Amino acid sequence: MNTLPAPSPLGNRQLWQWLVVAGAVGVVIWLLGPILTPFVISALLAWLGEPLVRKIERTGRSRTAAVLLVFTLMTLVLVLAVLLLVPLVESQVSNFINWLPRFGQWLTGTAVPWLESRFKLELAGYVDPSQLIALLKEHWRQAGGVAATVMGELSKSGMAVVTWIVNLALVPVVTFFFMRDGSSMLAKARDLLPRPIEPTVTKLAHESDQVLGGFIRGQLSVMIALGTIYAVGLTAVGVDLGILIGIVAGLVSFVPYLGAIVGLGAAVIATLVQHGDLMHLALVLGVFGLGQLLESFWLTPWLVGDKIGLHPVAVIFAVMAGGQLFGFLGVLLALPAAAVAVVVGRHVYERYTESELYGADESAAIITDAEAVNPPVGGTSVPKGFGTEVPPTKDQ
């Protein structure tokens, strides 16, 4: 029986060195968290624009010209999104607050009596829409109060206002330089790596980029497309809260079918409260049916394809854990860290299954010895005496 080799002192020392380096990096990130946020945002924006920069470079333009084009395009998109979405969301939230009393009347006057008569239930004593509406309004007031408190504290502290403005102004500047010089920065960082581990680290970094890109550039695009389809479709069929429902459904669409379930449930209730007829209900069902067809047969195959992304549960856990540990900076770093963890875990698993600890070499040796004793017939190892003899022919 093969015995495991004794651990190498050099290998143990290198392992401890890397653990110390990783711990030191974590401490530095934690200490510099308040000032790292604009740099992390800039790095993510530059990473998102890098594929388009490379495509423009391949047309013969210089990298600086390509970066200027992409940077201008991204700035215009962000400005237009803010100018268009903020008034729409504000209007939709106001409509939602005004819609709540109508929802209470529909709940007590239509939904509860129908459920009681249909399923022989006694719900009148348990359903109090006034309490539900009051609870929703109170939470909304508390959210507004928190926002007002934060803005008030910012206005009182001149240093906080200056810091916020500086961070906001840093994002576009740092993004531009990351987009222009990011490739050379990464090349210099790769040159500083110890030569024995440079190929492995480069491979892991490339795979991490593929995993993260498969989720953000793929699944995020699907989320935006579905949110737009639902918002435009529901508004077109006459649902007053269509834009708000579409945005929410798009945001939760990274979990398969959750966006359609949440959006359809909210849209059905909003349609019944507003219109109360089968025609509008059928139109709402048609909007979500069309959205699911487009997602299954066009959006996901085209935008995501066979890219290896992050599992939705891993995304939820990573974002929550990052926010709990490092606040807003942790939320920004959650997905990149999760992508690296997935790739490293896959690499460790492959190394483990090929190691002597797993027994891969010993299993291969056993299989080889068995095939030497009983050669395979027709591609399958068959023990001697079980159909391996060839019967004689008539000529024999």
Automatic annotation (TrEMBL):
Region described as Disordered: spans on this chain: 377-396
Keyword annotations from UniProtKB, A to Z: Membrane, Transmembrane, Transmembrane helix
Coiled coil start-end: none
Cellular-component GO terms for this entry: membrane
Subcellular location(s) per record: Membrane
TM annotation in the entry: 15-48, 68-89, 161-179, 222-248, 254-273, 280-299, 311-344
InterPro entries from the UniProt entry: AI-2E-like
Domain of life: Bacteria
Membrane topology qualifier: Multi-pass membrane protein
Gene Ontology terms: biological process: transmembrane transport
Family stated for the protein in its record: Belongs to the autoinducer-2 exporter (AI-2E) (TC 2.A.86) family.
Name the record gives this protein: Permease
